[in-house]
TrEMBL record, chain A:
Species annotation: Chthoniobacter flavus Ellin428
Protein name: Exosortase EpsH-related protein
Chief location bin: membrane
Bilayer-crossing regions: 5-24, 30-50, 62-85, 97-121, 133-152
Signal peptide per UniProt: none
Subcellular locations according to the entry: Cell membrane
Molecular function terms, GO-annotated: peptidase activity
Keywords from the named record: Cell membrane, Hydrolase, Membrane, Protease, Transmembrane, Transmembrane helix
Topology in the lipid bilayer: Multi-pass membrane protein
Pfam families: Exosortase_EpsH (PF09721)
GO CC annotations on file: plasma membrane
InterPro entries (alphabetical): Exo/Archaeosortase_dom, Exosortase
TrEMBL record, chain B:
Keywords assigned by UniProt, alphabetized: Membrane, Transmembrane, Transmembrane helix
Domain of life: Bacteria
Protein name: Uncharacterized protein
Source species taxonomy: Bacteria, Pseudomonadati, Verrucomicrobiota, Spartobacteria, Chthoniobacterales
Segments passing through the bilayer: 7-25, 97-114, 121-141, 170-189
Length: 170, 212
C-alpha cells in the first residue's frame, strides 16, 4: 500500500514536471484549439452559429475562451498517476493511461460545450456551472474512472471470498 | 454475489454524498468560509519579524476567489501605509471544502463498520487540514520572496513557484485519495475491491476458508 502511494505521488510529480516543460507550452495551445473546434461543432447541434479563433468560441451573442487552466491537464495527471502506480500488467497500465487521457479530453469538450450553451442562454448561471457544478462533476468522474479501472484490472476473487456479506458489520 | 455489486454500492454512495456536500449551498458554504477564516487567522495570520499576514475578503469575483491572504513587508511600507502588498486570492471550495468533503464521501462510502469510518474520517480530516495549512504556508513563503522577506535565487524562486502551482492544482484531488487509501484501502492493493469492502470479521472468515 505504501509503495503504491509513494509511486502515485512520484508519478504525479513527474507528470506535473512534464507540464512545466517548454515543449508542453507549445503543444497546449494546439490542444486547446482542438477542444474549441470540437466544442464549436457540438454547439452547432444546438442551433448555435459558433466560430473558433484560436481557443476562443464565439457566436454573435456570446464568446468564451478555453484558458490553459481549463485544459483539465491536472485531472489527466491524477488519473495517469493512479493508473501507472496501481500494481497491474504494463499492458493494462498503458490502456488505462490512454483511456484516461481520452476520457478527460471528452469530458472537457462536453464541459466547454455545456458552458458555452449555459453562457449563451442563461448567463447568470455561468459562474455556478463553471466553478461549482463542473468542478464537482470532474472530481466525481475522475474518481469513478480510477475506481472503475482498479475494479477492472483487479483479479476476480474465489467464490469463497465473494460469498461473505460485505455489509454484515454495518 | 456478483463482483460489481460492492463497487456499485460504493459508487452510488460516493456520488450522492459528494454531489450533495460539495455544492456551495448558502449556509453550508458560509460555514466553511468562516471555519477556514478562523483556522487561518489563528495559525498563519499575524506578524513575524517584518512579515505581516492578514485574512481579508476580495471584492468582485465571489465564485473565483472569496478568501484573500494579504502579505506585507513592514520594512518596505511608507509612513502613510502605502507600499508593496501581495495578495493570495483563493477559493474556499477549492482549497478547503471540496478536499474534506471528498475524503468524507470516500470514507463513508466504503463499507466499513461505522466506528471505523468515523475514526478514519476524524484522523484523515486532521491530516488533511494540516496539509491545507502547509500548502497555504508554502504559498505565503513563495509570495514572501517577492517582498524581499525571503532571500531566494531565481532557481529557488522557480522551484518554489512549481511547488506552489503543483500543490494548489493537485492537493485537493490527490491528498484525499491518498489519505483514503492509507486509512481504508489496504484491500484495494492486496486483494481487490472485495476485500476492501469486507469488514474485519469477514476478512477473518475468508482467511480461515483459505487456510482450510
Amino acid at each position: 500500500m505504501h509503495l503504491f502511494i509513494l509511486k502515485f505521488i512520484g508519478v504525479l510529480v513527474a507528470l506535473h514536471a512534464i507540464t512545466l516543460l517548454p515543449l508542453f507550452d507549445r503543444v497546449l495551445p494546439i490542444y486547446l484549439h482542438g477542444v474549441a473546434v470540437v466544442a464549436a461543432g457540438l454547439t452547432h447541434c444546438f442551433g448555435e452559429s459558433t466560430t473558433v479563433t484560436g481557443a476562443m468560441l464565439h457566436s454573435p451573442t456570446y464568446a468564451i475562451t478555453v484558458a490553459p487552466s481549463c485544459s483539465a491537464v491536472e485531472l489527466a495527471c491524477y488519473i495517469g498517476a493512479a493508473v501507472i502506480a496501481f500494481p497491474s500488467p504494463w499492458r493494462a497500465k498503458a490502456s488505462g493511461f490512454f483511456l484516461g487521457i481520452c476520457f478527460v479530453a471528452v469530458l472537457n469538450v462536453l464541459r466547454v460545450t455545456s458552458l458555452f450553451l449555459v453562457g449563451a442562454h442563461a448567463r447568470a448561471a455561468f459562474e455556478v456551472a463553471h466553478e461549482d457544478v463542473w468542478a464537482v462533476l470532474l472530481i466525481i468522474a475522475s474518481t469513478l474512472f480510477v475506481a472503475g479501472w482498479i475494479a477492472w484490472v483487479t483479479p476476480r476473487k474465489t467464490p469463497a471470498a465473494t460469498e461473505t456479506d460485505e455489509y454484515a458489520a454495518e | 454475489m456478483p463482483r460489481n455489486k460492492p463497487l456499485l454500492r460504493f459508487v452510488l454512495r460516493f456520488v450522492v454524498m459528494f454531489a450533495l456536500l460539495a455544492l456551495p449551498w448558502p449556509h453550508w458554504y458560509d460555514a466553511w468560509r468562516a471555519a477556514l477564516r478562523t483556522i487561518v487567522t489563528h495559525t498563519l495570520a499575524g506578524s513575524s519579524g517584518s512579515r505581516e499576514v492578514s485574512v481579508t475578503t476580495p471584492e468582485g469575483t465571489p465564485h473565483v476567489a472569496d478568501f484573500r491572504l494579504e502579505i506585507i513587508n513592514r520594512g518596505l511600507m511608507n509612513p502613510d501605509g502605502s507600499g508593496p502588498v501581495r495578495h493570495l486570492d483563493l477559493n474556499v471550495a477549492q482549497i478547503e471544502m471540496r478536499p474534506i468533503v471528498l475524503l468524507f464521501a470516500l470514507i463513508f462510502a466504503t463499507p466499513l463498520p461505522w466506528k471505523r469510518r468515523v475514526s478514519f474520517f476524524a484522523i484523515g480530516a486532521v491530516l488533511l487540514q494540516i496539509g491545507i495549512l502547509a500548502t497555504l504556508s508554502i504559498c505565503i513563503w513563495r509570495e514572501s520572496m517577492e517582498l524581499l522577506l525571503v532571500n531566494a535565487t531565481s532557481t529557488e524562486k522557480a522551484v518554489a513557484t512549481a511547488l506552489q502551482d503543483g500543490l494548489t492544482q493537485y492537493f485537493g484531488l490527490a491528498m484525499p485519495f491518498v489519505l483514503w487509501l492509507l486509512l481504508c484501502g489496504r484491500g484495494v492493493i492486496s486483494g481487490g475491491w472485495q476485500s476492501l469492502f469486507a469488514p474485519a470479521d469477514a476478512e477473518a472468515t475468508h482467511g480461515k476458508l483459505k487456510q482450510a
